[in-house]
């Protein structure tokens, strides 16, 4: 069976894969990687973590680049940071941050409203303030982190290794600036998420999986976890905000449900809007043995890319991928991944997005602006710019 070619360079991931899927659920990139575009195939690869390893980078990536027992142990040590009690304790601070940002955006704005970019002026600023508050980082880092997000986005898109290495180093320096004072303070360090992570212990197991003891997280593991919790996800929250506000600006009844409905209903709306236009495009895997997927033989060592944006719009599962059906589509939604590596940050990301939308929609009507938006190009999805008009309510 011949394999269709898919070149992701410079394309808009959603429309490009909508076309590509007509040729089959699997494709090959010009550099020989497998693109997993179909829903069933994405689920198969993500669930079979023994055949499809996540150890794809030469850099330490905790937990996303780990496999097996090592991965399980780190997830067990870090998932509790996103537990229900943690989220409930953070919610009031988050609401204040969202409320203050909305105040800043619409203060002194007349009834005609003001045009803002939902990605850079709302999503990115909120993401940085929310994440720094959650981690206990100084507010003075806001400007530096915002600039870092812009540079990181551009470096990722450029595909130039030297640029991505430079922004990665800058981020590590930021992380070091928050860890160093805590190390010096020792027991007197502030009781926040960052300090608690530094003190967190991981279960150590024997080769047959029996727990044999505990050890502290190593410094490089702490840095990698914090990089994962912030570096990648600041951008994702900003992109999600763009996708959500671009949709809600044209769906007043759904915006109204977010204003008056329950938290559970709001989560379902967010999940479904992100399924339709998933800005968190892809993750990588490596085949650990020869395997057949969708009728194609994949050799040991070959690389695969799970394309969540495409899988979330596979017509074999979502007959009309653009149809908004939160309840009907929820069981098949892959926005947060599936399997062992499923997003641990989902409760936090969802809380952040819902609280932001609730606070924004309580204070303002959001309508499309005349300025045309700009779609993101691979490897990011969603929108780079989403101009919307915010008009203060009543
Ligand atoms: C904003 C929207 C977000 C989306 C759409 C998203 C989506 C995803 C997806 C699809 C995966 C699966 C990766 C894979 O299978 O290889 C993942 C993993 C991960 N996410 Fe998220 N995420 C978001 C926000 C967050 C946040 C806020 C955090 C933490 C603060 C976070 C932390 C992580 C980590 C650590 C992993 C790796 C898990 C592992 O490999 O076991 N994410 N995310």
Features:
five-stranded mixed sheet, three-stranded antiparallel sheet, 14 helices, 14 strands, 50% helix, binds protoporphyrin IX containing FE
List the helices and strands and how they pair.
Elements: H1 13-20, E1 26-28, E2 34-36, H2 39-47, E3 52-53, H3 68-78, H4 84-106, E4 114-117, H5 118-135, H6 142-158, H7 161-185, H8 193-199, E5 201-205, E6 211-216, H9 219-248, H10 252-260, H11 263-276, E7 282-287, E8 291-293, E9 296-298, E10 303-307, H12 308-311, H13 326-329, H14 346-363, E11 364-368, E12 374-375, E13 383-385, E14 387-392
Parallel strand pairs: 2-10
Antiparallel strand pairs: 1-2, 3-7, 4-14, 5-6, 7-10, 8-9, 11-14, 12-13
Bound molecules: protoporphyrin IX containing FE.
Description:
The protein is α+β, with helices and mostly antiparallel strands and 394 residues long. It has a single domain (13-392), classed as Cytochrome P450 (Cytochrome p450), CATH 1.10.630.10. It has 14 helices and 14 strands. The chain has helices at 13-20, 39-47, 68-78, 84-106, 118-135, 142-158, 161-185, 193-199, 219-248, 252-260, 263-276, 308-311, 326-329, 346-363; strands at 26-28, 34-36, 52-53, 114-117, 201-205, 211-216, 282-287, 291-293, 296-298, 303-307, 364-368, 374-375, 383-385, 387-392. The strands form 5 sheets. A 5-stranded mixed beta sheet has the order 1-2-10-7-3. Helix 9 (219-248) runs parallel beside helix 14. Bound molecules: protoporphyrin IX containing FE (HEM).
In short, what is this structure?
This protein has one domain (13-392): Cytochrome P450 (Cytochrome p450, Orthogonal Bundle). The chain is built from 14 helices and 14 strands. It has helices at 13-20, 39-47, 68-78, 84-106, 118-135, 142-158, 161-185, 193-199, 219-248, 252-260, 263-276, 308-311, 326-329, 346-363; strands spanning 26-28, 34-36, 52-53, 114-117, 201-205, 211-216, 282-287, 291-293, 296-298, 303-307, 364-368, 374-375, 383-385, 387-392.
